[in-house]
Amino acid sequence: MQQKGIVSIAIVAILIIAGACAIFLMDDNTDSNSPAGDVDAAGKPIEAVEDLDNGIVAIGQDSFRWATYFGLADKCVMIDWNDSYNFLGKSFMYAGRALVDIEGSNTATPADMTYYSHTNCGITDDDYRTILELNPSIVIVPKGFYTDYKNIMNALDNQGINTVAIDYVYTFLEPETFQITAQLENQIDILSKALNQEERGQELKNAFSDCVSDIKVFTDRITVERTAYVGSLAYNGAHGLESSMTYYMPLELAGVNNIVGGTPDWTDSGVRTFSASEIRNNLQEDTILFIDASGYHVNIDNTSKGLLKMFAGHDAYTLAPYIWTGINHDTVFINALQILRFAYGDDVISESEYETAVKSVYERFYGTSESNRNIDNPNKIQGTLELPSEGTTILEDMNAVYEAVRGVSIGAEVTINSDGTLSMA
Fold first, then answer.
1. In 242-398, which ranges are E strands?
2. Helices (DSSP H) in 228-350: which residue ranges?
3. For residue 286, how far is the Cα from the chain centroid?
4. Which class is 223-424 in CATH?
5. Domain extents for the chain?
6. Do 2-196 and 223-424 have matching folds?
7. Over 120-131, what HEC string results?
8. First CA to last CA across the chain, in angstroms?
9. Which pLDDT tens digit goes with each residue over 321-365?
10. CATH code for 2-196?
11. Which three-class secondary structure state does DSSP give residue 160?
12. Which of 6, 196, 205, 299 could be a cystine partner for 304, CB 3.0 to 4.6 Å?
């Protein structure tokens, strides 16, 4: 492998430096005659792997997430830098443990680990050289890499590196019916074929539909629907209470009316800024305030305080992180269950039913509900966080991380003080 890497680096120089202009003029290597089911999200023919002996490179938004969903985290020999430390934003990181991560110690930090991308959700020339050195069985990247990093991706293709492009899937359930969208189904089909994991692909499709079915058991018990507003939704960074969505899927799943609901915004993540008047004009006596835990800590400016004062006297709770450079698909169901519990209580879902349903969500997506976190101090912000003990659930461990780093619990009651500040009840 080392000799191949040396030869490959020389080829990199030829392809990227001497032949940059020529690469720009090359076609996309797309077989326009290939049926839709045989091409990836970038329109390129899918080449199924025969084995994963050389491992998986999963870089860019959502690549390692999907590798983890497919139960292949430990086959990943290179992952995105943003997936090496972001325990505050990504639920799958509590289950997925990449091979590069396993080879580090239990107290390994990102700086100690070699095979991470050199940029968040992107690919650099150094990453290109690392990929050639690794000679992986397959590389998973977002489709945007083929436009944003066209030179490098064409060079990888020309070197015979098997790559598969995935889509950005934000709206994965159809409104009202909550059936999986064609986009989600295609995403799973692409990876099922590329990774030669058809059986697991079907299990994942079932995971989505089974989670919906579980939640429907509880929503069928609702007699009077409540209203709610969810704020501090994060996307590429934490945001204040004004950050929300017109179509927040957990509210829809839980049978709670979104006071800023309306025509779904399918642009990217759908997260946008709402004005005080938009929120005030729709606020009702029974409206519950939900605050995404990922943005709880930034609600300290005058805008946030002003909005919070409007919710004085209303029930308020924190929720697990919904979105962060990609959507936490499994957490959508966790949030729906949390919302059901807070909005309707034992009349709709008991504590034991809630705990069982949460466990089922994680087991369907990860094969386990227990945390596999191996970094004892994620984000290096405050002190040292102990590694989870055996039997600690993903949600419990995520809560421990938030309490240690952000000082906020997940799924907890919140007090809105008279000056517009927040505190844990």
1. 243-244, 257-258, 272-273, 288-292, 316-319
2. 249-254, 276-280, 302-310, 329-344
3. 31
4. alpha beta
5. 2-196, 223-424
6. yes
7. CCCCCHHHHHHH
8. 57
9. 998 788 999 999 999 999 999 999 999 999 999 999 999 999 999
10. 3.40.50.1980
11. coil
12. 299
